[in-house]
Write a structure and sequence with these properties.
The chain is mainly β. It has a domain of 132 residues: Jelly Rolls (Sandwich), CATH 2.60.120.380. 0% of the residues lie in helices and 30% in strands. The chain is built from no helices and twelve strands. Strands 3, 5, 6, 8, 9 and 11 form a six-stranded mixed beta sheet that branches. Strand 1 and strand 2 form a beta hairpin. The chain is elongated. The termini are far apart.
C-alpha cells in the first residue's frame, strides 16, 4: 500500500492529509474551504478632506534682546594730514607792501648854482640840550639848559657837490648838521657844527665843504649858544 502525502500550499498555510483507502487508492478528504491564513484587516482609508491638525514645527523662541553691535568709539577720526589746496590761479591781488616807515619830510632843494636864503625864527620853538658840535662830531657832551631850535631839511636835486652854510642872527646862534632828514635818536651823532666862524670879519656859525650826493639829504639845525639865545635868523646856503 502506498501512502502519499498531498500537500497544498495556499496563502502561506500548509494543509496536509494522509489517508489509506481500500485497494490502495488513497482517499482524499473533501476540502471544506481554503484557509488563506489569518484575515488581514485592510488599513483605513485616508480622508483627504480632513485638515491635518498636527502641530507645526517649533521654529524656536525669538530673543527680544537687541543685537549688541559692539561699543562705538566716539573719538575723532584721524583724517591724516590735510591736503594743501591747489592754487587755481585766482588773482588775490598784490602782496602787502612792507611798512617803509613815514614818508620823506618836505625839503628845500639845495642850489644848483649860487646861494639861497632861508629865513626863520627860534622864538617859542621846541627846546633841547644841544650837542657841543663845534668841538667835535660826533659830539661827546651836551650844553646845559633847554635851548630853542629849528630844523631845515635840505635835499640835493642836482649833481653831487659841496655846500657852505652860514647863519646870520641877532642872537648868539649855533649850527648843527645831521645826515638824513630826521633827528637821530642820539643827538650827539652829528656830522658837523659850528658856533662862531674862525674868520674875525664874519663871526657867524659857518659849515663849509659839506658834501652831499645827488638825491642826498641833510638836516640843518639852527639853535643858540644858551637858553636865552633865540630869535629871527637867516640861513644862507651856497654851492661851492
Amino acid at each position: 500500500m502506498t501512502s502519499r502525502v498531498l500537500t497544498l500550499v495556499l496563502g502561506g498555510t500548509l494543509l496536509g492529509a494522509c489517508a489509506t483507502g481500500s485497494g490502495g487508492v488513497p482517499t482524499v478528504a473533501p476540502q471544506t474551504g481554503v484557509d488563506a491564513g489569518a484575515t488581514q484587516t485592510p488599513p483605513p482609508a485616508i480622508d483627504a478632506s480632513a485638515s491635518d491638525t498636527s502641530p507645526t514645527g517649533d521654529a524656536g523662541t525669538i530673543d527680544p534682546t537687541p543685537f549688541d553691535a559692539g561699543t562705538i568709539d566716539p573719538g575723532p577720526i584721524d583724517a591724516g594730514t590735510p591736503v594743501t589746496p591747489v592754487d587755481s590761479g585766482t588773482d588775490a591781488g598784490p602782496p602787502p607792501t612792507p611798512d617803509a616807515g613815514p614818508p620823506p619830510r618836505p625839503c628845500t632843494p639845495l642850489p644848483t648854482t649860487g646861494t639861497i636864503t632861508i629865513d626863520g625864527s627860534t622864538s617859542g620853538a621846541a627846546t633841547w640840550q644841544r650837542p657841543n658840535a663845534a668841538v667835535s662830531c660826533p659830539a661827546t657832551t651836551r650844553a646845559s639848559g633847554a635851548i630853542p631850535y629849528a630844523e631845515h631839511v635840505l635835499c640835493n636835486q642836482g649833481a653831487a657837490g659841496t655846500f657852505e652854510l652860514v647863519v646870520d642872527s641877532g642872537a648868539d646862534a649855533y649850527l648843527v648838521v645831521y645826515d638824513g632828514d630826521s633827528m637821530p635818536s642820539d643827538p650827539l651823532a652829528c656830522r658837523d657844527g659850528d658856533d662862531d666862524s674862525a674868520d674875525p670879519l664874519l663871526p657867524l656859525p659857518l659849515v663849509g665843504g659839506l658834501a652831499v650826493p645827488a638825491g642826498g639829504r641833510v638836516l640843518v639845525v639852527v639853535t643858540g649858544y644858551g637858553a636865552s639865545d633865540y630869535g629871527p635868523y637867516s640861513l644862507y646856503v651856497s654851492r661851492e
